[in-house]
């Protein structure tokens, strides 16, 4: 059996001009990065955004992730290929991979098997340099803060809240101390959790990008007033660093379907959606746009609705929830080593997790839902039938997908179901009102989506809650918590009850337009596992990479 990278390396890619032609784009609309990657020019994006939206927006989400795997990105790509294969005009809209997971535990993020984005190696490693530009803009602001203080501190900084970032996992940089000319504790976040990344992904155009960057709060003065990036005249230079990166990236799937891949905030510690500018562009280039929100529906889908849709006015037409037999058995108490053995009783228990996510999407967000069962060879007929019967009894439909092995042909049933359901009128809603207090928003999310009994605040968070009472008015909340549980405790599988959401820290992201609530033991700079994925990666004498998955 070929590995993902071997499949990708064996593929014959179409020239990116041909991919663009499918979308009605001309060579002049592209800025090339070789023969198979391009950026859409800013002029083209601006022109497209003046056109009416024509596409149905399909939100891809999933059950709570497990070590057994679910395959949400793979299913996004497989569904896009299947829609095109069935005669619909579809475009995938995805996030760019972070090098943290690429070299850490997860590996690459371009799909798998015969449902992949290509060129796989380039996309996973540096791509068009967008994340480097975001990192540079973030750290330029940090340097400007320290430089201002060094040269006299005219703004009278008393506390500094701005943190540095980098796009690899390095736990040693979580906490650092700066001792000249002002002593203060700070640290590094991974780039995909930075406020600059969030701003990049939520800005509507370059003017909005500049405005949001200027609105970043970097500290508090000795008089107790906020100090902004605009007080340092930083926003112009930061925008200059981000100008090229802000243009969406065009690539292709193994089957030649077009894909816009742009921006990449994590969904556990950030808002988990690709850039708004790419989504808005995609909606004017195709009839169906398949976009992904990271991790389970309690994280990525909630933030897609309550942050991205709230700020943009967009609404998805429906949602697809990805599940696997293996993962549902894990939620039912089976350990990873045994997930390939038939176990109907564990599967029956674990299906509660799938039902919770379906119920959340339908009841709290008003979204029509179908289930994509990402099929594995070890799945038995009895197991599939059990899930299919349960999903039908919940008023939804389940579609068995084999896109990993068969590409778009393996997801045709799902494609037709999605195309049909997306045409039916829906009335999507948001979970909470902007007028609620920060505590009330947190409690609404925790109780409605997570099944928590309440929200608790640590000493630091309690102090910050009081300090942010005025600044947080009207802002949504972005919860940073483990992706592996509906709770903030990684060990609690399936649908835990009786737990509380414990908020450890609150961070104001004025430019992005939300408040981050760091819960449990979540870290905004991940660490590497004992056996990182980087140990499998090598390059031969001809420059051919192996081990990247």
Automatic annotation (TrEMBL):
EC number, as in UniProt: 6.3.4.3
InterPro entries reported for this sequence: Formate_THF_ligase, Formate_THF_ligase_CS, P-loop_NTPase
Pfam hit, one: FTHFS
Pathway involvement of the protein, from the record: One-carbon metabolism; tetrahydrofolate interconversion
Keywords of the record: ATP-binding, Ligase, Nucleotide-binding, One-carbon metabolism
Residues that hold ATP according to the record: 66-73
MF annotations from Gene Ontology: ATP binding; formate-tetrahydrofolate ligase activity
Biological process according to GO: tetrahydrofolate interconversion
Database matches in SUPFAM superfamilies: P-loop containing nucleoside triphosphate hydrolases
Similarity section: Belongs to the formate--tetrahydrofolate ligase family.
NCBIfam families: PRK13505.1
Listed name of the protein: Formate--tetrahydrofolate ligase
Naturally occurring in which organism (per UniProt): Methylophilus rhizosphaerae
Taxonomic placement: Bacteria, Pseudomonadati, Pseudomonadota, Betaproteobacteria, Nitrosomonadales
């Amino acid at each position: 059996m070929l590995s993902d990278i071997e499949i990708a390396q064996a593929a014959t890619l179409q020239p990116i001009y041909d991919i663009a032609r499918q979308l009605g784009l001309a060579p002049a609309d592209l800025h090339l990065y070789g023969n198979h990657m391009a950026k859409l020019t800013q002029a083209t994006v601006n022109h497209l955004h003046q056109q009416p939206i024509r596409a149905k927006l399909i939100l891809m989400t999933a059950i709570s992730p497990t070590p057994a795997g679910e395959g949400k990105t793979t299913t996004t790509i497989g569904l896009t290929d299947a829609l095109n294969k069935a005669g619909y005009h579809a475009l995938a809209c995805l996030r760019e991979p972070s090098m943290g997971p690429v070299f850490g535990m997860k590996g690459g993020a371009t799909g798998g098997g015969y449902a992949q984005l290509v060129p796989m190696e380039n996309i996973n490693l540096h791509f068009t340099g967008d994340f480097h530009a975001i990192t540079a803009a973030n750290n330029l602001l940090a340097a400007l803060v320290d430089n201002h203080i060094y040269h006299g501190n005219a703004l009278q900084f008393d506390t500094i809240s701005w943190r540095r970032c980098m796009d690899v996992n390095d736990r040693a940089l979580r906490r650092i101390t700066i001792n000249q000319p002002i002593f203060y504790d700070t640290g590094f976040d991974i780039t995909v959790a930075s406020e600059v990344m969030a701003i990049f992904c939520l800005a509507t155009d370059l003017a909005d990008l500049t405005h949001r960057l200027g609105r970043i709060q970097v500290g508090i003065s000795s008089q107790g007033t906020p100090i902004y990036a605009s007080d340092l005249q930083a926003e112009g230079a930061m925008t200059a660093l981000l100008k090229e990166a802000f243009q969406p990236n065009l690539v292709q799937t193994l089957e030649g379907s077009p894909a816009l891949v742009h921006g990449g905030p994590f969904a556990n510690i950030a808002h988990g959606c690709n850039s708004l500018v790419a989504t808005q562009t995609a909606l004017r280039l195709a009839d169906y746009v398949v976009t992904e929100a990271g991790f389970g529906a309690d994280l990525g889908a909630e933030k897609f609705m309550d942050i991205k849709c709230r700020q943009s006015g967009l609404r998805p037409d429906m949602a697809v929830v990805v599940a696997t037999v293996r993962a549902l058995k894990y939620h039912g108490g089976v350990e990873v080593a045994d997930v390939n053995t038939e176990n109907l009783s564990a599967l029956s228990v674990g299906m509660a997790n799938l039902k919770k996510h379906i119920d959340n999407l339908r009841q709290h967000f008003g979204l029509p839902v179908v289930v994509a069962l990402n099929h594995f060879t070890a799945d038995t007929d009895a197991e599939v039938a059990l899930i299919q019967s349960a999903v039908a009894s919940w008023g939804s439909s389940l579609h068995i997908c084999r896109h990993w092995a068969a590409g778009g042909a393996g997801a045709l049933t799902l494609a037709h179901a999605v195309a049909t359901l997306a045409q039916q009128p829906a009335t999507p809603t948001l979970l909470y009102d902007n007028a609620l207090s920060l505590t009330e928003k947190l409690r609404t999310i925790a109780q409605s989506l997570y099944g928590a009994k309440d929200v608790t605040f640590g000493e630091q968070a309690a102090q910050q809650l009081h300090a942010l009472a005025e600044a947080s008015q009207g802002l949504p909340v972005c919860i940073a918590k483990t992706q592996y549980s509906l709770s903030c405790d990684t060990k609690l599988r399936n649908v835990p009850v009786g737990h509380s959401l414990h908020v450890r820290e609150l961070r104001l992201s004025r430019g992005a337009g939300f408040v981050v609530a760091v819960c449990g033991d979540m870290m905004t700079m991940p660490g590497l596992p004992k056996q990182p994925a980087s140990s499998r990666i090598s390059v031969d004498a001809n420059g051919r990479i192996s081990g990247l998955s």
